Amino acid sequence: MTLIAVAHGTRAPEGPVVLESLLSGVRTLLPGVDVRVAYVDVIEPTLSSVLAGVPAGERPVVVPMFLASGYHVRVDVPEAVTADGGRALVTPALGPDAAVVAAVEARLRSASADLPSAVVLAAAGSSDASALAEVSVAASLLSSALSRPVVPAFVTTASPSVPDAVASLRAAGHARVGVASYLLAPGLFQQRLTTSGADVVAPPIGPHPLVAALIAERYRAVTPPADPPP
Fold it and tell me: I need a labelling partner for 62 at 20 to 30 A (CA). Which of 76, 94, 102, 200 fits?
């Protein structure tokens, strides 16, 4: 079968390169599966065009590579699947799965030998309350893993902003504040984190093996096991 990993899209040239590296890991875990990438905004190929290229009679699996179930997951992806005839199987988004949070923790630890005393979990942002709640769940999981306060904040659309969250933690007495990136790939949003006023800014999640394994797991969860050879 075909696995279509769908992402937001970015004009930053390194973004698609990072996603392709991530999907290379998925291909290793799913030998024989046709793993393709699609985007819901900014760049091509679109999800509609990739779905149209899947052979007739096949039920592709669409894995939304989003860290919260906002508008793109709830509206854009289902609309494209419906327009294609509804044959695709759609899995849940990636976040706030514990595997994603573990990858975020690993990126933060890689950014500094000493963990900051408090952390801002920086997400893209959404106008959808349920998506924001999912980011709060991820922040709670990260706080438990780090044994430190973790505050969810957003690059755009929602409040608090990342700089405001950093400033609030400093006002609360934390001398060293870090930003953990709840972003999958580099781009404009990740660039904005560097001006947030934090002492440590972690890189985006990128091609982490835990995320590749989660995408493969999402695929296996909706597909029947292959018949054993005779």
Answer: 102
